[in-house]
Write a structure and sequence with these properties.
It is a single chain. The chain has 73 residues and is α+β, with helices and mostly antiparallel strands. The chain has a single domain, classed as Cytidine Deaminase, domain 2 (3-Layer(aba) Sandwich), CATH 3.40.140.10. 37% of the residues lie in helices and 19% in strands. It is built from two helices and two strands; from the N terminus they run αβαβ. The chain has helices at 16-25, 46-62, and strands at 31-37, 66-72. The longest helix is centred in the last third of the chain and has 17 residues, at 46-62.
């Protein structure tokens, strides 16, 4: 398990290279990406949808499947 980014109440900065860096160095077969929703509202916003799309696309390019999970705090 590796923490990639720690955001604020309603924003987090995520770089795709940081998400996949550890996976590539460890020759991972896939990655599981999780993020919390401090507000308790787990409905994905526009930013969540864009990040998900970018992660899945990058994973396909790198041949590293991406699994996504949302968590409430």
């Amino acid at each position: 398990m590796e923490a990639i980014s720690k955001g604020t109440l309603n924003n987090a900065l995520i770089h795709l290279r940081e998400v996949f860096k550890g996976a590539m160095l460890e020759n991972a077969n896939s990655v599981i990406v999780a993020h919390s929703h401090p507000s308790g509202n787990t409905e994905p916003g526009n930013a969540d949808k864009k990040v998900k799309e970018a992660l899945v696309k990058a994973g396909k390019l790198l041949d590293i499947p991406v699994r996504l999970r949302d968590y409430r705090q």
